[in-house]
Design a protein that fits this description.
By secondary structure, this protein is mainly alpha-helical. The protein has one domain: Fumarate reductase/succinate dehydrogenase, transmembrane subunit (3 helical TM bundles of succinate and fumarate reductases, Up-down Bundle). The protein is built from 5 helices and no strands. Helix 3 crosses helix 4.
Length: 129
């Protein structure tokens, strides 16, 4: 083995020369939204659990969820849900061997981003009536 000081080796040189692409960015956001959805699911489970425990506990959880911070979290969770869903559809298409061309993959990445925002706005509009 080479006598190399591990403290002087470069750290992932690809990070300094690699230009992020829409496919890599969308893949990273799939992972981020998946983890964020776990947190929001736990928050909703806590809300339901508080309802089962009693009115005092429910009032506390309802205050948290209906606060400005809670509303922002729920809207971001709704966006994450749509984004993650569209990413799943994209992967189903890719699993069939379609859409793997660079241009098509880029279009699908942008469609996920724009589609998730559009579906979030439509869903909020339908909820508000």
């Amino acid at each position: 083995m080479a006598d190399v000081d591990p403290g002087k080796r470069p750290l992932s040189p690809h990070l300094t020369i690699y230009r992020p692409q829409i496919t890599s960015i969308s893949s990273i956001f799939i992972r981020i939204t998946g983890n964020a959805l776990v947190f929001s699911t736990l928050l909703l489970v806590a809300w339901f659990l508080a309802a089962a425990i009693g009115p005092k506990t429910f009032n506390v959880m309802h205050f948290i969820i209906s606060s400005w911070f809670g509303k922002i979290m729920m809207i971001l969770s709704l966006w994450a849900l749509w984004y993650h869903y569209l990413g799943g559809i994209r992967h189903l298409v890719w699993d069939t061997g379609r859409g793997l061309e660079l241009k098509t993959a880029e279009i699908m990445g942008w469609a996920m981003i724009l589609g998730s925002f559009l579906l979030t706005i439509i869903t909020l509009w339908l909820i508000k009536g």
